[in-house]
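Ticket #4471: structure export looks truncated?
Reporter: QA, pipeline team
Priority: medium

Steps to reproduce: submit the single chain below to the structure queue and open the exported record.
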Amino acid sequence: MGPGDAADGGSAAPEPAPLAPGRGWVLLPVAWCVWLLVWLVPSLLLAPHLESPRFWMTRDTAPAAVAAAAALFLVAAWPFWPALAGGAEPLRGRWLALSALEGIVLAALAAPFVLVAWSVAGRALDVWPPAAVGLGLGVLGLGLRVAVAGLGPRAARWLMLAAMLACALPPALAYAGGETMGIAFPRLLEASPVVALVRAALEGWPPLGWPEIARLWLWPGVGVTLAAAGWLEWRRRGGPAAEA
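Actual output as written to the record:
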């Protein structure tokens, strides 16, 4: 070791290397399929062997389970996958095209799980309402991706926390209000992306007013806003010149 190694940080522990971009792209559909399957396990494998299964283990809840799993992954996991996989060429055409292609692949891979869930529950599948809401959540996920790439790695932690809170906090507050004060908060419950996709999958098109706004327009609008903020911040820092 030379005398200048310590000054140059040679003694510091190396940071863990991210996944190679190619490997991360391969692992994404695997993680997606495993995630959906895990959420279907209670309805498909556990409920038939129990005399009195819990309500969330019954076969009737299989569509809700797969819809909730898809919403959680699209909002709280998929947007941050490039950061784990190395994040090649942020905010360039190739990177955006790859992100869109990933969304198409995930939708195609989800189709068998959707068919199995609806078949097990014995429900008729109206594909367009959940497809519309799922597309909106895909726009939100892509907006989060652009925001992470444009705002930098520090913002990624806060955006991930905000995504998880957006999914879990409205149902948690609605449940707590009902249990502690006996007051229902249906308008607050609709604000969760998870609830939006589950209701679209089970109930079809939302009625006019707040349910329609919450399920079809709120989260795509948030995604577009986040994408614009990330893009403008990236341009402010110099755009392509800053990455060179």
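Status: closed, not a bug. The export was complete when the record was re-opened. Leaving a note from the reviewer for reference: The two ends are 31 Å apart (CA to CA).
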